[in-house]
């Protein structure tokens, strides 16, 4: 049986306090609550001792009026003309565009999730889950106070300007085309969330087995998980990555790497 040293016990206690404080507050996203499509996923994470979520968004299509200061839209300084977490239709966008006074931008923002982890090893496990599910732009941030955060994200977004100073700059036919693209991205986004949930369940099961068998845990260090996949014939079973490999080969992420990015940043 492994004995925790005093410093580890202190960090564990501090993590527990952070988790209790976070879960007593609303979700830190602009909406202030968890989206329906990721409620179950968030509940599973928050039920684990080593994780808690701080903010999330299941993915959405937005129409923003960013004023007249160019195409760089800053969310805090813009007006949300339309927001939906479901497929969008052209008529809704056309109606919303009539309210624009500046540079309106149509955006699709994919699923994003921020999870605080008890220690780096926990974050590495969750990072592998995210990458294996198609969220290849995910990364780990370690703060000065020891807070370890995992951001789950991908790069298959969309951002297109539609109007300038209130004047529509594209045709309705083009808007219809853009919405078809955005809706397809929304559907792919939903599939990746489902894969993330399934991968997470398998990872938690493997971790529970490893914790009950210390020798197995030593062999399953998450830092070397992907290296082991180079020789699948010697593995004990197929990984989640192998299962979804064909689906992810042709995805539209720009970053196919599986590196864990660690950035010192205070939270």
SSE map:
Elements: H1 6-23, H2 39-46, E1 51-57, E2 60-65, E3 79-84, H3 90-97, E4 104-109, E5 112-117, H4 120-132, E6 139-142, E7 148-152, E8 158-161, E9 163-164, E10 167-168, H5 172-212, H6 214-219, H7 225-228, H8 240-249, E11 262-264
Parallel strand pairs: 6-11
Antiparallel strand pairs: 1-5, 2-3, 2-4, 4-8, 5-7, 6-7, 9-10
Helix pairs in contact: 4-5
Radius of gyration: 21 Å
* Major sheet details: 5 strands, mixed
Q: Quote the beta fraction.
A: 15-25%
Across the major sheet, the strand order is: 1-5-7-6-11
Order of helices and strands: HHEEEHEEHEEEEEHHHHE
- General shape: elongated
- Got a strand count? 11
Provide tags for this entry.
single chain; 267 residues; alpha+beta; 5-stranded mixed β-sheet; 4-stranded antiparallel β-sheet; 8 helices; disordered C terminus
Walk me through the structure.
40% of the residues lie in helices and 19% in strands. The chain has 267 residues and is an alpha+beta fold. It has a five-stranded mixed sheet, sandwiched between helices. Strands 3-2-4-8 form a four-stranded antiparallel sheet, covered by helices on one side. Helix 4 crosses helix 5.
Q: What's this model, at a glance?
A:
The protein has 267 residues and is an alpha+beta fold.
């Amino acid at each position: 049986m492994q004995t925790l040293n005093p410093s580890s016990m202190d960090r564990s206690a501090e993590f527990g306090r952070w988790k209790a404080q976070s879960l007593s507050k609303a979700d830190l996203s602009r909406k202030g609550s968890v989206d329906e499509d990721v409620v179950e996923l968030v509940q599973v994470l928050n039920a684990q001792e080593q994780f808690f979520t701080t903010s999330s968004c299941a993915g959405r299509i937005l129409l923003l009026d960013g004023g007249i200061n160019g195409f760089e839209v800053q969310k805090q300084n813009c007006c949300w003309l339309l927001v939906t977490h479901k497929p969008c239709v052209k008529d809704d966008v056309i109606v919303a565009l009539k309210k624009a006074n500046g540079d309106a931008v149509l955006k699709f923002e994919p699923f994003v999730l921020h999870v605080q982890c008890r220690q780096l090893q926990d974050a590495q496990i969750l990072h592998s889950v995210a990458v294996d599910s198609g969220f290849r732009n995910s990364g780990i941030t370690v703060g000065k106070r020891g807070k370890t955060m995992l951001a789950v994200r991908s790069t298959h977004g969309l951002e297109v300007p539609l109007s300038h100073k209130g004047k529509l700059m594209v045709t309705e036919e083009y808007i219809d085309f853009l919405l078809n693209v955005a809706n397809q991205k929304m559907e792919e986004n939903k599939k990746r969330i489902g894969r993330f949930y399934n991968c997470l369940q398998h990872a938690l099961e493997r971790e529970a087995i490893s914790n009950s068998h210390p020798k197995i845990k030593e062999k399953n260090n998450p830092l070397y998980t992907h290296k082991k996949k180079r020789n699948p014939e010697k593995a004990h079973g197929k990984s989640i990555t192998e299962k979804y490999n064909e689906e992810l080969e042709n995805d539209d992420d720009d970053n196919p790497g599986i590196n864990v990015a660690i950035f010192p940043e205070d939270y």
